[in-house]
Design brief:
447 residues; alpha+beta; OB fold (Dihydrolipoamide Acetyltransferase, E2P); Chloramphenicol Acetyltransferase; four-stranded antiparallel beta sheet; 10 helices; 18 strands
Length: 447
């Protein structure tokens, strides 16, 4: 009996997945542990391996298709084995699509006007009736073929046929109105525009006399809207929700890392490698223990105090931003914190993060120190009350003992939820991080 391959469930909140690409094709032999396909959830792209062996008999959900978790996406079995007649399960509807449909008001019946024998008394106009659903676009076969030949979008044409149907004479009138006969376009450009369903009348030509070239079509294609990845859509939705519903308050502090960088080189000579981020993470964890309100959460009505520090570390990927979480960071030594974060960041960049490894953070660090950034602010992750934006370290002239001396200065900005974190608390917390970064005795004890 053919074995159904199902869309796996990654994480408690995952409801559906999108198949990025199949790594096996129908007819391929599959062994246990082989990667069948890659699927994109709202947080990451995951590889799905086979728990069975056999031949891939049928693919139900193709590349780019979306299916609910636990629904069948393919069948595996023996060559020639019968496959159940299964179609792709529909993805879960968006909230707006789930709204109850209202019944359209019946259209009024048209009657012929009958002349009155005597003047009638004025009758109050009836209340306006809500318009029913828009009529679907209709076009005759001849008109459709003419529009395709001309490589234009017939949706722009006003139809004069029955019920607004676009007929051939409407297309011809539209072409004449837009001086189509004077249009100049290379054959290759026209073929490309037709293949990509572009309207040649909407293209700007860069050739002699405004002639449309292949490059002009390619430029128009580059400007066509592209559907955001599921990950990018979720990032956009969550950060918009956070920034519009949480009153952000920003505090910027500058730390002198001159001595810390020198100490870091000493550690390196001893075979102990630490990045600046490692010191920042440890300083943040220690400060969160001192300021538990910054490690808490609120919905505006209640406050949740977190007994442990679950540290999120923002990682920029090509497809979007992910935040691996080092759990119980307050219980780890500095070396353990470094190794745990390094391992998670590596998994994130390799696309091997499990959704559960990106959930439950209580505070996040966003570090752009390697990008030559003087200062920036970050948006608080939903569920947290603050986030730290770490900038680059620059050699800066600083006044010390009445003299101007070069020092390595790094700025960082704390974004706080002003509903539960007051300005004074934010400033104290930020300065706690600064003081720890500048305390060499602390680092000597911790390393």
């Amino acid at each position: 009996m053919a074995q159904a391959i199902q869309m796996p469930k990654f994480g408690q909140a995952t409801e559906e997945g999108t198949i990025v690409r199949w790594l096996k094709k129908v007819g391929d032999t599959v062994a246990k542990g082989d990667i069948l396909f890659e699927t994109e959830t709202d947080k990451s792209v995951m590889e799905v391996e086979s728990f069975h062996e056999g031949t891939l008999l049928k693919i139900i959900v193709p590349d780019g298709g979306t299916a609910p978790v636990n629904s069948t996406v393919a069948f595996l079995g023996q060559p020639g084995e019968a496959v159940p007649d299964v179609v792709a399960a529909p993805a879960a509807p968006k909230p707006a699509e789930a709204a109850p449909k209202t019944q359209a008001a019946p259209q009024a019946t048209r009657t012929a006007a009958v002349p009155s024998a005597a003047p009638q008394a004025a009758v109050p106009a009836a209340p306006a009736v809500a318009a029913g659903p828009a009529k679907p676009f209709a076009i005759s076969p001849r008109a459709k073929k003419r529009a395709q030949t001309a490589v234009i979008d017939p949706m722009r044409i006003n139809g004069t046929g029955p019920d607004g149907r676009v007929v051939e004479k409407d297309v011809e009138a539209y072409l004449e109105q837009h001086n189509y006969s004077a249009l100049r376009i290379t054959p290759a450009a026209k073929v490309l525009a037709a293949r990509e369903s572009l309207d040649v009348l909407a293209l700007d030509g860069s050739g002699d006399g405004g002639k449309i070239l292949v490059a002009d079509v390619e430029l128009a294609l580059a400007e066509k809207p592209k559907t955001m990845s599921k990950m990018r859509q979720v990032i956009a939705q969550r950060l918009t929700q956070s920034f519009t519903s949480v009153p952000h308050f920003f505090v910027t502090v500058a730390a002198d890392l001159t001595d810390l960088l020198a100490f870091r080189e000493q550690l390196k000579d001893r075979g102990e490698k630490y990045s600046v981020t490692d010191f920042v993470m440890e300083a943040v964890v220690l400060s969160l223990v001192e300021f538990p309100v910054v490690n808490s959460s609120t919905d505006g009505k209640a406050v949740w105090w977190h007994s442990r520090v679950h540290l999120g570390v923002a990682v920029a990927l090509e497809q979007g931003l992910v935040v691996p979480v080092v759990r119980k960071a307050d219980l780890l030594s500095m070396a353990e914190l470094r190794d745990a974060a390094k391992g998670l960041v590596g998994k994130a960049r390799d696309g091997k993060m499990a959704p559960d490894e990106m959930q439950g953070s209580t505070f996040t660090i966003s570090n752009m120190g390697m990008m030559n950034v003087e200062n920036f602010t970050a948006i608080i992750n939903p569920g947290e009350s603050a986030i730290l934006a770490v900038s680059s370290t620059f050699e800066t002239p600083v006044v010390r003992d009445g003299k101007i001396v070069p020092r390595h200065i790094m700025k960082f900005t704390l974004s706080s939820d002003h509903r539960i974190i007051d300005g004074a608390t934010a400033a104290q917390f930020a300065n706690s991080i600064k003081n720890k970064l500048e305390d060499m005795e602390l680092w000597k004890r911790l390393t």
